[in-house]
Input
Amino acid sequence: MNKIAVIGSNMVDLITYIDRMPEQGETLEAPDFAMGCGGKGANQAVAAAKLGADVLMLTKVGDDMFADNTVANFQRLGIDTQFVQRVPGVSSGVAPIFVQSDSHNSILIVKGANAYLKPADIDAAQGALRDCKLIVLQLEIDLATVYYAIEFARRNAIPVLLNPAPAVAGLSREHLSQLDFLIPNETELALITGKPVDGPETALAAARHLVEEGIRHVIVTLGDKGALYVGEEGEFRVDGRKVAARDTTGAGDAFIGCFAHHWSQDGDIRRAMTQAVAYSACSVTERGTQSSYPDAATFAQFLGTC
Ligand code: RIB
Output
């Protein structure tokens, strides 16, 4: 009964490691390339599953060579794929990603089949969703589907978490106020609140504003500075872990997946945040997105050494 439902995207990550971005009209040689399974929804589901969570995934794959690999990847990790559907005549979601030598990234996304995940798909899965301890959402699918999922969760008294990524302006305040958890990064928080956010102090002020509007728990991820909490349990900060970062792609998703897993176990927010800060730090020490997420044993080793 600790099952987590992730309703969201999957993408094929096409990761090019670069020394710098090319100028317009310039052709530039890049040192390396890798392809992997990604997409914010899938990444969060995989992070949770690698840590031992029981995960149900609602997503849509395309009608191409990527689809089988995506489904096989979920199944290899024990993720429930009964509601992963193929859309005829449409491409799978893809994400060309550019990772610089300082570990930072730029990402383009093509939603492809992800745009076909609709409210009717939530209705079709309602029996399975009602058995879940938490519903996890992001913003790489239609906003109407995200809003419908929030309404469904509220109606059925299922806790619901939104990671508002990628950043989207003009989100419905009415829907945001129904969330149990909102977990933005600083950029997303600034866009949602319309307030400047450039560090822990300004993030705290903006997060307080959202809690006043009705969100129960706001957790702001602060990159290598950790994360801060504002909500029903007061206000606190979890410090970041110092690591040698190689590739920060998907670190936010690692945080969400790990947080969802731990919170669904015992409802301890501070403990789940502490684990999630460490898990996302561990993920940036390796290249790739899902490929950089440690399983429970490897993560335990990481915790023992830093
Ligand atoms: O958050 C990282 C993810 O963003 C990548 O896996 C990419 O697919 C995009 O969805």
Q: What stands out?
A: Residues 138 and 163 are 5 Å apart (CA to CA). The radius of gyration is 18 Å. The first strand starts at residue 4 and ends at 7.
